[in-house]
Amino acid sequence: MEYFVYGRDAVDGFEIKVALNEEHWSFMDRYADGLIARGPTLTEDGERATGSLHIVDLPDDEAVRSFAYDEPYYRAGAFETVEIHRFRNRYPGRTMWDFTGTGERRYLALTKDASRPFTSDHLIMYGDLLDGDTHIGRAALLEAPSAEAAAALIQADAAEVHPWEFGGRR
Q1: Residues 156, 91: Cα–Cα separation, whole Å
Q2: Are 53 and 37 in contact, with CB atoms under 8 Å apart?
Q3: Which of 12, 93, 101, 137 could pair with 112 as two cysteines, CB 3.0-4.6 Å apart?
Q4: Strands, E, within the chain: which ranges?
């Protein structure tokens, strides 16, 4: 089962995460086979992280709670909130590493509007966010020249858009 896990940074979350990067990556290494996408959301200038996104394949709800709440950033208080949703991948079997890209900026776009399916060569991946069996929105990872262009690409009436980059060990 695939899950969308998004931790939004607390006020001092960036500093906590910088101090715990190696612990975080070591923790994530245990989940490497199930990671579909990962990486930080960023300030508009790209200088500081504002959150941490993971899309991961895990066996059940208990496993995703362990993934989210045993993670070193969470345990140290780096996140103000953590969102966990089931994720119905609209590109089954695809991971962020399968995307070759165009070199434009990358974004995470979240929307509650799910009325219009979309396709684009700029989509890294996208899927439905579910609470149980109830559809609550969509998440898309994509490339675009700006946040406004990212929102337009997913054809949503209202979208929350965050600069994002591929994460993991460099």
Answers
A1: 19
A2: yes
A3: 137
A4: 2-9, 35-42, 49-57, 79-89, 105-111, 123-131, 134-144, 160-163
3-class secondary-structure state, position 120: coil
pLDDT tens digit sequence for 79-91: 999 999 999 999 8
Taking all residues of the chain, what is their mean pLDDT, rounded to a whole number? 92
Residue with tokens 């500081």: 48
Q: Residues near 81 by Cβ (< 8 Å), separated by ≥ 6?
A: 7, 8
Q: How confident is residue 155, by pLDDT bands cut at 50, 70 and 90?
A: confident
Query: pLDDT tens across 37-50, in order?
Result: 999 999 999 999 99
130 is written with which tokens? 């579910």
- Main-chain dihedrals φ then ψ at residue 144, nearest 5 degrees: -165, 160
| Contact predicate 143/122, CB 8 Å | yes
- β-sheet with 123-131: strand ranges across: 35-42, 49-57, 2-9, 79-89, 123-131, 134-144, 105-111, 160-163
Please tell me the pTM assigned to this model.
0.94
Residue 106, phi-psi category: left (phi > 0), alpha (psi -120 to 50), beta (remainder): beta
